[in-house]
Amino acid sequence: MNCYICKRELTDPKSIAAGIGPVCAAKILNHDDQPQNDRTQLLSDPINDENGIILQRTDAGVATNVPRLVTDHSPDGYEWGYHGSGPADLALNIVEVVLRQMGYRGSKMLILWNGDTCFRKAYTLHQDFKREFIAGMPEAGGVIPLDKIKKWILATIPTQRSLF
């Protein structure tokens, strides 16, 4: 595999997974990081078949059981109920978490905003997931059943079931 910036051959497993070499990554990521203003409260409820994905509004703001593994769109945190950057990051993180839980073994990619990595498939699917599950969520929040998400993922990528 080659670096998608300079096209040099990648030899390090981490670079191969990210799709970019360390020199190019350092050049891209050597910028003033924006302050992390994430106002999302992480609930202690695990993401499992019983709980699913929990989305709530509290006096302090947004609360969910979805950990922030990747930031690509919104440094301010998660949101739902519309098509925007907060809902996009929420969707990306939900798909990433569920793919990990399902044992997905596909390739990873580097998120250039801050150097996080995620599955390429999570990044490919997250905008569709946002439209399907997040943008129409009531402002007060709700629960997305985990089995519904897994079924959606499997229906969306049926030809890649061998990666699970």
Shape, principal axes of CA atoms: globular
The main β sheet shows up as: 4 strands, mixed
Strands side by side in the biggest sheet = 1-3-2-6
Indicate the low-confidence ranges by residue numbers.
28-36
In helices, the fraction of residues equals: 25-40%
This entry's quaternary arrangement is: single chain
Radius of gyration: 16 Å
How many helices does DSSP assign?
5
Helix-strand sequence: HHEEEHEEHEH
Structural class of the secondary elements?
alpha+beta
How much beta, percentage-wise?
5-15%
Query: How confident is the prediction overall: mean pLDDT?
Result: 84
Overall strand count: 6
What is the CA–CA distance across the termini?
22 Å
Description:
By secondary structure, the chain is α+β, with helices and mostly antiparallel strands. Strands 1-3-2-6 form a 4-stranded mixed β-sheet. It has a two-stranded antiparallel sheet with strand order 4-5. Strand 4 and strand 5 form a beta hairpin. Helix 3 packs across helix 4. The chain is globular. About 5% of the residues have low confidence.
Write a concise synopsis of the structure shown.
The chain is built from 5 helices and 6 strands, in the order ααβββαββαβα. By secondary structure, it is α+β, with helices and mostly antiparallel strands. The chain is globular and about 50 Å long.
Give descriptors for this structure:
164 residues, alpha+beta, 5 helices
SSE topology:
Blueprint: H1 13-18, H2 22-29, E1 41-42, E2 53-58, E3 61-64, H3 85-101, E4 108-110, E5 117-119, H4 120-134, E6 141-144, H5 146-156
Parallel strand pairs: 1-3
Antiparallel strand pairs: 2-3, 2-6, 4-5
